[in-house]
Amino acid sequence: MRIVVSNKTGVPIYQQIEDQIKAAILAGELQAGTLLPSIRQLAKDLQISVITTTRAYHDLEAAGFVNNVQGKGTYVLGQDSELLRETALRAVEKGLQEALDAAKLAHLSAEELHQMLDALISAGGKTDD
């Protein structure tokens, strides 16, 4: 698994780490029981603060994606597919609500929103219908 962080995205680095590890788990790239890099090793590899990697791992543990075993490391937890689907649905709903809020500010119609979504899907954000 390769993690890439950027200071230019506007997304906090700990969140970038969390998002990439979650995506790898959800995509099956990281299987249950996989040992993640240590907090210190990941910080060293990414040339970031240990505090940042600690925050990312703590949040991943709180969300049920990993388990920290004192003195042994942080391991990927097995995921319940229905729970994962619900988590993904909540994230989609949140993103759509943010888009709706922005659309209201821009005075976009429902038709314009539908056209934008269709264009985004056509451009590569395809879903499995």
UniProtKB/TrEMBL annotation:
It holds the Pfam family GntR. The keyword Transcription applies. InterPro entries: Tscrpt_reg_HTH_GntR (IPR000524), WH-like_DNA-bd_sf (IPR036388), WH_DNA-bd_sf (IPR036390). Residues 11-79 form the HTH gntR-type domain. Keywords: DNA-binding, Transcription, Transcription regulation. PROSITE patterns: HTH_GNTR. The keyword DNA-binding applies. This is GntR family transcriptional regulator.
